[in-house]
Amino acid sequence: xxxxxxxxxxxxxxxxxxxxxxxxxxxxxxxxxxxxxxxxxxxxxxxxxxxxxxxxxxxxxxxxxxxxxxxxxxxxxxxxxxxxxxxxxxxxxxxxxxxxxxxxxxxxxxxxxxxxxxxxxxxxxxxxxxxxxxxxxxxxxxxxxxxxxxxxxxxxxxxxxxxxxxxxxxxxxxxxxxxxxxxxxxxxxxxxxxxxxxxxxxxxxxxxxxxxxxxxxxxxxxxxxxxxxxxxxxxxxxxxxxxxxxxxxxxxxxxxxxxxxxxxxxxxxxxxxxxxxxxxxxxxxxxxxxxxxxxxxxxxxxxxxxxxxxxxxxxxxxxxxxxxxxxxxxxxxxxxxxxxxxxxxxxxxxxxxxxxxxxxxxxxxxxxxxxxxxxxxxxxxxxxxxxxxxxxxxxxxxxxxxxxxxxxxxxxxxxxxx
Amino acid sequence: xxxxxxxxxxxxxxxxxxxxxxxxxxxxxxxxxxxxxxxxxxxxxxxxxxxxxxxxxxxxxxxxxxxxxxxxxxxxxxxxxxxxxxxxxxxxxxxxxxxxxxxxxxxxxxxxxxxxxxxxxxxxxxxxxxxxxxxxxxxxxxxxxxxxxxxxxxxxxxxxxxxxxxxxxxxxxxxxxxxxxxxxxxxxxxxxxxxxxxxxxxxxxxxxxxxxxxxxxxxxxxxxxxxxxxxxxxxxxxxxxxxxxxxxxxxxxxxxxxxxxxxxxxxxxxxxxxxxxxxxxxxxxxxxxxxxxxxxxxxxxxxxxxxxxxxxxxxxxxxxxxxxxxxxxxxxxxxxxxxxxxxxxxxxxxxxxxxxxxxxxxxxxxxxxxxxxxxxxxxxxxxxxxxxxxxxxxxxxxxxxxxxxxxxxxxxxxxxxx
Lengths: 418, 418
Known about the structure:
By secondary structure, the first copy, chain A, is α/β, with parallel strands linked by helices. The first copy, chain A, contains 17 helices and ten strands. The first copy, chain A, has a domain at about 10-125 and about 175-210.
């Protein structure tokens, strides 16, 4: 929106007031936050906006319900008192490279310190990153302590089994020319795809080439750091890292059809150990449910897999997803390395992942990977061997190469056996 | 979009071809699926569309990346072979009441059986609900078996500790006149709020009153059913139910600042017992991270709470959220009862929740609640007593009313103690 709407008049965002120019131009990849300029996705001062979309990802829709029902004053501005980061992250050289970070705002946690004057003057500038501290308690970590795979040290792991972490929430901020370059397409083609495939979300994607930054209404990223976070500043620090894509069915409910929670927990245990041994552990959690196809599609695929004539076979694992969804996987790891760049990391010593896509995306972005750590066999649920065999055959990392007959032999539970 | 776009020409969705009419009119709350009409959010046959938005919630954005990068053919149609529901749900009388279900498509899992002819002719009709089966394994349930709070019966709980469930993914489908009525506002006001507060998402919200159904790009709902699901058809079945709003920090990572995972797990244990005792257990999991304000806001609030002059006090718990976000809570339970109506339920015998908002929303929608079950005290993490005391003082259900001084006395860990 380019100007305040009168009650009887709604100006569409697709075509602004003729000749209008930006009050807050953005220069992506600039030397510092003030030269780059503030990301302004406000809906209460439309004349200040310099992006497409708004803050909070999908949760803008709930904000709309809050306003429509009278529970939220639409011109209400956040009071950011005491919300500043609970740990210092950066700045790192990568923040000044417009090609290294294209999908988040590297200065997004520091708006109050960089733009305090503007905020005090009433400009609605909001953080897109928040850094806090937490203690976490997981039954599997208690078991690791009981089995003496972990010991408590009073610093990372406490006597009651809880673990200290720094945790960071990051909302997506897409610099469209940079996102297009990552996908090997033109900015025009990307903008058109975003407009058409969403059923016409944000016409400015195609009518406003002057707005180059998009706040997409998708889930963001959470980062958990284990150990002394000041060691991010020392290039010698040994880094253990798992990049995990959300799987609600396993991560929360423990579904036995996949290895998601077991592998995540194994990654956390490895990260705790790294933090205790003078290194740093990093879990990156991306909201990309069901290979970024959503849970409805995921459950449809489960049914199609389980009802195949020859049973749920590893050999047809990816094929079934493609039949239902048109693609085998929509997670596209091309944007994933940004958070690693944001943390100033150039080398991952232990990468707790078998995904060739994640590995290749990181290496392609100049992040060295020293060692790849597969999920230990004893952590794979019985019914998840179908997934594991299919992934290894498709190029996922494994310590032992798979024999072809295993692919045909690995068959899961049919629907009537649940 | 109202017609196929030429390469050199993009027709904005806000203003269709003059005089165009719908090929597939919708009649919300009609007697059956064919009279109601199919929900068509296709992007490959724009002339068939009868809704605002598209399928897959937020994941439309990833579909756009798939198409932009050449990985997905934009006119690809899903092959729904073998994807039909793995258990029968409904139809129930509530499906025919346009005021009882306004935020999902009650026929959304049955598109292949109701519109098979149209799909075969090339109309791109997609399911918005998927019903499958699963086995879940949770360390806390193993502990419950070891402690003999649960026993295995070979049917609901298996000898290895895994639990059989029917699970259902539901994407939101909003009938805008009905949603407006739930929030006590006009449809025009709701449409305008949705348009303005999202920074101008979907101009058709304000230009196309003829399109009354919206597929919002927000996370959906997952339902887990424990026990014999055919008992949904018997009004005498004892129902145990927890309605849980997502909290990634606790549900997955076990953060000790809140009671989310402990209460969810307690709910699952109660649901398992209900299923074993001839009743039905139901977990409803809604994607509403951080009170539907998102995780960035949530972490900012944590910092503000922990840095208050008098410490993280129950007395200021809700105030801190309101300072940062403008509202204390944006979850708005008004639409939540729809899934209970969809399951044909008119009475919940054991409601595993202390939330007065959830209770009041259900009762207001005509669902009886017989007994409310608070979280057992021994499951509340030490640092989560702040949240619990604040919620009880604000009207959350509790077996013993709170004494005023407890509210002032309950103080959590400051940031330097993590």
